[in-house]
Design a protein that fits this description.
This protein is mostly beta strands. Helices cover 14% and strands 35% of the residues. The protein has a four-stranded antiparallel sheet with strand order 7-8-9-17, with no helix packed on it. The longest helix has 12 residues.
Amino acid sequence: MKTQPILALLLTTLLVASCDPEELTSPVAVFDMQTAPRHLFKVNLDASGSFADKDGGNLEYRWDLNGDHLEWETDWLSYPVLTVQFPYRYNGYIGLQVRNSDGNITELYQALYTDEDYRIQKAWSDLEIDFRRIDYHFSYADYYRTWVWAYDNIQLPGSEHLYNFPTSAERAEYGSLVPWSVADTLDENYRLPSKAEWQEMIDYCGGTALAGFNLQVTAEHGLQLSCPGIVINDQLRETGTFGYYWTGDEADEDSAWALKISSGSDEAEFVTIDKSSMASVRLMTEFYQFAN
């Protein structure tokens, strides 16, 4: 059980951190996050900046992930990086204890804040079936950016040139699977994201090692990508296991790049698939407003 007040523990940690390393008897606790915290997204808590004493030495780490200062959510761990789903919608505390080989422990709590500015609304487009869009808003020194993504997999009326799932529930979840030539010409105002634009979304979602999960997780501020599978040679494959999302970039005359995600993996990757294959579509665009 943890009984000392958080403020006192923070003060103790600051005093220890200010000591000359030659005089240290307790370790110094430091941690940060490798990517920006977003509710329910997986993030890496990184305590590798902590140190035991002037000679280095081994440390163990344990974490209070809900900040309640009552129970530790992990046992003592030997590795300083921990992957977790960020538990707070807006802000909250996460605590860390580090222990050196002498059994001395230092504790640190940090306040962590999410930074999200988004809006979900109906998209006006040339498509016969409407879709929703999510607008991410970013403010810079001399301009504002609105980064717009389709909030749903694009669904199209039935056609021999695409694949629609047989039930309404599947169509709502998966959208339509279409060849690249159709996907690349759907709308005047929205476009297929380029490979670079998908990469920016991957970075927003925690980087390649975590984006596969964060792109799928059921969080209002995320894209909530599904895994409809792919149609190759008129055969539907891998539904519920993999998702393939077209980019606007051709790999060569016969193939194009696609984002690939898996329901069983945190990772996201780019693959090349034949343009005649049928894959999923998310459209995007962006707007800039410059300050006077």
